[in-house]
Every structure is written in structure tokens, then in C-alpha cells.
Design goal:
mainly alpha, about 70% helix, about 130 residues, DUF2384 domain-containing protein, single chain, globular
């Protein structure tokens, strides 16, 4: 059963992003969103760090790991329902449900406990309503 076929793709994505080794999380997120966007989410300037995370050669701090696990949780259902390109556009675009702020910027700059629920709600609304 693929993620898109699951009754609650966001729940399956949450479970996967939580349980997967961090190198796998970084590799999957890099595959869906691209290294530049993952670097932005991770607060690093160079994609070299992202490649190091994905290869298991480097490990970022806990806060960055949490942020990237959360981003994977959001990206997987969007990519499964549409495409990687749509997931990238969703993360970067100004979202009316987030007061015209981009999910990527909120996740990079905000406290996950504060911005996380709003980003989840916006992603669910996008998946349901397009």
C-alpha cells in the first residue's frame, strides 16, 4: 500500500518521519524538496551539509532534526497526492491559510510548537481542497 492509498496519509507520514533514521529522513526530504530547500529549512547555507546528513556523515542538532522530520511529515502526503514539484511549490509559496507566509519560512524561523499546528492544518486543507 502506498502512502497515497492509505486512509490517513498524514498519520502514516508522521509515523514514518518519526521512526526513520535521520539519514533516511534527510535523504527522502532531499529527494522530494531538493537540497536547496532542505538547506533553507535546516538553517544552513550550503547544500553540502544536506548531502552529509543524507549520507549519514554529519548529524545536525536536535532542533534541526525535529524541524526536518516535521517537514518530511508534511511533504510526503503532498508529493504522493500530486508531485514533488507541487510539494516544493507548496513549501515555498505564500499560503493564505498561514497569513500569506510560506510554510518553509515558518518552519525555519518559528518555534515548531507554535507554528507546527498551523502548518499541519494548512497542508491538510490543501490535500482536501487542492
Amino acid at each position: 500500500m502506498t502512502l497515497a492509498e492509505h486512509a490517513r496519509p498524514d498519520l502514516e507520514a508522521h509515523t514514518h518521519a518519526t521512526r526513520a533514521p535521520f539519514a533516511q529522513v534527510a535523504a527522502e526530504l532531499r529527494a522530494v524538496l531538493g537540497a536547496r530547500l532542505v538547506a533553507y529549512l535546516g538553517g544552513v547555507r550550503e547544500t553540502r551539509a544536506v548531502h552529509g546528513w543524507a549520507e549519514g556523515e554529519r548529524t545536525p542538532g536536535q532542533e534541526v532534526q525535529q524541524r526536518l522530520r516535521f517537514a518530511l511529515r508534511i511533504a510526503l502526503p503532498i508529493a504522493a497526492a500530486d508531485s514533488d514539484a507541487v510539494a516544493q511549490a507548496w513549501f515555498q509559496g505564500l499560503n493564505p491559510q498561514l497569513d500569506d507566509r510560506s510554510p518553509a519560512r515558518l518552519l525555519r524561523d518559528g518555534d515548531l510548537e507554535d507554528v507546527g499546528p498551523a502548518v499541519v492544518a494548512a497542508s491538510r486543507a490543501f490535500l482536501v481542497g487542492g
